[in-house]
Write a structure and sequence with these properties.
Two copies of one chain form a homodimer. Chain A has three domains: 48 residues, lambda repressor-like DNA-binding domains (434 Repressor (Amino-terminal Domain)); 121 residues, Response regulator (Rossmann fold, 3-Layer(aba) Sandwich); 144 residues, 3-Layer(aba) Sandwich (Rossmann fold), CATH 3.40.50.2300. With 348 residues, chain A is α/β, with parallel strands linked by helices. In chain A, the strands form three sheets. In chain A, strands 2-1-3-4-5-11 form a six-stranded parallel beta sheet, with helices on one face. A four-stranded parallel beta sheet of chain A has the order 7-6-8-9, with helices on both faces. A two-stranded antiparallel ribbon of chain A has the order 10-12. Chain A is built from twelve helices and twelve strands. Chains A and B meet through α4, α5, β2, α9 and α10 of A and α4, α5, β2, α9 and α10 of B. The first copy, chain A, binds a DNA duplex (16 and 16 nucleotides) through α2 and α4.
Chain lengths: 348, 348
Amino acid sequence: MARSRASATMKDVARAAGVSLKTVSNVVNGYPYLSPATKARVEEAISSLGYRVNVTARNLRQGSTGLIKLVVPELRIPYFGELADSVVEAAGRRGLTVLLQQHRYDREAELGVLRSDGGSQVDGVLFSPVHVGQADAEAFRVDFPLVILGESIFGAPCDHVSMRNIEGGRAQVEHLLGLGRRRIAIIGLSDVPDVSSSRLRHKGAVAALEAAGVALDPALVAGPGPWVRPVGARLMADLLDSGARPDGVVCYNDALALGAVHELSRRGVRVPDDIAVIGFDNVEETNYSWPPISTIDPGRETIAAAAVAMLVERIGLEQSFDPSTGPRELLVDFRLVARQSTLGATGG
Amino acid sequence: MARSRASATMKDVARAAGVSLKTVSNVVNGYPYLSPATKARVEEAISSLGYRVNVTARNLRQGSTGLIKLVVPELRIPYFGELADSVVEAAGRRGLTVLLQQHRYDREAELGVLRSDGGSQVDGVLFSPVHVGQADAEAFRVDFPLVILGESIFGAPCDHVSMRNIEGGRAQVEHLLGLGRRRIAIIGLSDVPDVSSSRLRHKGAVAALEAAGVALDPALVAGPGPWVRPVGARLMADLLDSGARPDGVVCYNDALALGAVHELSRRGVRVPDDIAVIGFDNVEETNYSWPPISTIDPGRETIAAAAVAMLVERIGLEQSFDPSTGPRELLVDFRLVARQSTLGATGG
DNA sequence: TTGTATGCGTTATCAT
DNA sequence: ATGATAACGCATACAA
């Protein structure tokens, strides 16, 4: 028997079961006050007709979609792949489905997210911006639920989940200093003047050096450039070619660290014997590179769960939440993960 | 002035502009035959009211959502992160938005995708199954547009895009043989009896060995286990601990290869001098590990674009496509990417 | 070139 | 416990 292409509606089910539309709706939505007989009859009709609720119609009627949008630079960057994984997971636990968008570091694309139609078709948006920042604060005043993820835009007129970037940068440097390194190079300093992850981490790093009375050699600071592996490799190469001889390298993300370690290995420079390297993000890959790379774990799952929780409150799915609450800022704690790229062989 | 929370509808715009609903609709949808005056008046009203089309209502009316669903094991696996990236990109080029779902290798979750409501709220589904395969062929007979991605289920009652797994496995082995390796180990042989990537790649690998008259030592075949880095490391360790002394290792995906190389490096085994290693997938990470790992490039972008194109045809967005077309199977070409894990240092 | 009327499939408000 | 009927916001025959 050929399956009919157009699917059955509630009306069809109602007719087949000899009940009204409302009754079918009641059955479908688990309304408790139903006579077992009617319920059975309706369920019978549903399965025999292969009826499924039309989610779009339900959405129209209820004014919500059960969808949230996640906007990241690009999924092929391991950090964002892992972040998306955690967000999809956290959203799923709350019955929400995630719709994905990539902005590929394009400022216009990022601004588009904040335009009024950026929230259409979804109940809310999680946004991980790169080139839209402090200077655009007002653009974040949108009329749909929005939570900023991972970037630090202070005083933005919307909720915001991030990690303690300053303290993270400080911890990176303190770790190397604690291991006796003194000629510390830095890879990943951005040239954007506002409050980016890069500037914050750098702020912490500089503070740690100053606190220890160690001078930061400007010749040992490399950047800017996208935070991807090839750039890490190139910046490391440039440093070495310029005659710089660091004994420790702080990279402001793991991709840069992976590129840097790659370049060092290629040149036969021993890590960490000659140069210790520490990254930032704790992507899975750092644990399986050789040597495994020390890094800062920003608590990706915690960030994702917190961001989804905040968004859910803004959407209005939590009774206990006061909608007049002002913009909130949550800074998640991190931890330093020490591996062989700084510690050396550990009696494997 | 406080922005009203409930957004304006076409009716509001029509009233404000002193025209009918239909006219507003015409303006919004770019209907060409409009007097410039009316058009201007409507646009004025639209912007002053901050009107945005209600996508849900439009979807209900038009019977489609502009959404497709991508189901993968998990996004934190680099291969699937990169695949999702390409799918989102390809979908975007066709005006479709991607909704994400993870099945985390859970068979029930995979079967759920194929249940009748798996396609609700979306126009079509791209599905990358793992534990649902040949034996479940009939389950793939669903009443929504569906394209299987990357897994080889032959004769399934739906479209299917994959790569030439058998030839890929053969190419891996031939590459090692061509470099003079004879004691070839294999990592990643699955124990599922049906047509999985693993079995197909293995089939090609075995064929290549036989064709060359090289015996495959059963003691050199490792598996099963999830295709992730720690498993690659463990299987490599087990091989070495068992006293096996391969001079080449074929891994059926890159994560296994990365784990294996990691373990070899940890033990001070030289790659490729002592043991050459080749992976499969060409994830970006293989190019930045040390040494860079030779691999098979399955043409991820091509696969994604082809899968989206097929899905678009099934959805009915292509006039030229005959909807009565039977299930199609597309095998994308691959290429071998030779790097230092098999070639050795190349005069860096 | 523009307006009127109807329906997409569902849920909600009243009834009974 | 169930039914009749009216929205939700939009697009489209059809009419003018």
